[in-house]
Write a structure and sequence with these properties.
Protein name: Alpha/beta-Hydrolases superfamily protein
Order of helices and strands: EEEEEEHEHHEHHEHHEHEHH
Radius of gyration: 19 Å
Shape: globular
InterPro entries: AB_hydrolase_3, AB_hydrolase_fold, Carboxylest/Gibb_receptor, Lipase_GDXG_put_SER_AS
GO molecular function: hydrolase activity
Helix content: 25-40%
Distance between the termini: 70 Å
Number of helices: 10
Organism: Rhynchospora pubera
Structural class: alpha/beta
Amino acid sequence: MPTSLPHIVEECRGVLFVYSDSTVVRSENPSFPVPVHDDGSVEWKDVQFDPINNLSLRLYKPRHVTSKLPIFFYFHGGGFCIGSRTWPNCQNYCFRLASELPAIVIAPDYRLAPEHRLPGAIDDSIACLLWLQKQAAGFNSDPWLLDYADFKRVVVSGDSAGGTIAHHLAVRFGSTSGRTELEPVQIKGYVQLMPFFGGVERTRSEAQCPKEAFLNLELNDRYWRLSLPIGANFDHPSANPFGPDSPPLEPVEFAPTLVVVGECDLLTDRSVDYANRLKQMGKPVEVAEFKGQQHGFFTINPWSESSAELMRMLRRFVEEVGVRSS
């Protein structure tokens, strides 16, 4: 009997293809082939933080540093399925962060689905913060961090799936024992840029999202199908902070948190609901909405006026949380 050849059953932005026989093929090219704007004012290099899983991060610093700078983590987006610290859209955004905050920027990679389903990416991100703790404690410390970074002024940020990671890190280290585990590193705040949360029940912005949106409902659901554990629904704790099996957030001692949303993003309602529910619990959370903006506007066009406004907001946030005592 003739057998049909394997065919594509899932595809993400032209760089990830899943075939009917479960084969996964990834393109070496980025999904966003934009030019890199490197004017030489920021230096960067790659550093391995997890040799077992062969994971690296990209470290950025302003070329001319006169005093210790805060550390600003940036976890990239991509629905837990695509994306990389090496993609030019990520690099352009990190150049601007390092130059304008200014800060030592750490942009880690993490294992991607469907080869490595959640919570793999969250576990890798925890490992990256613990790597920073070892750096601060003097274990084979990178000279850039040792000479130029202030380990007591750390802000953890991420966009889309990276914003979801920021939430899970806030929960993981939001206790006395969690903070002790990171000493002498001190996380002063978190920034969730259009966090990629999910849930079985649709929100209004999800249901009304147009098909031509940069992140539409079809792609949103595809990312969750590929990244969640097989058999899990969208209320899985990795996706829904308020799902039936998710840990309670009332006991978590959240550091100051900024949640950034775009008016035209299908994730807006879920992100605003997340922030409002945390505020009702007394957590130090604020929301900033960017009118007329879609998902990921700041990495799609990091040199736009809206991106400049976001950069000014991030700088104020980093300055404000950096002067607060622990």
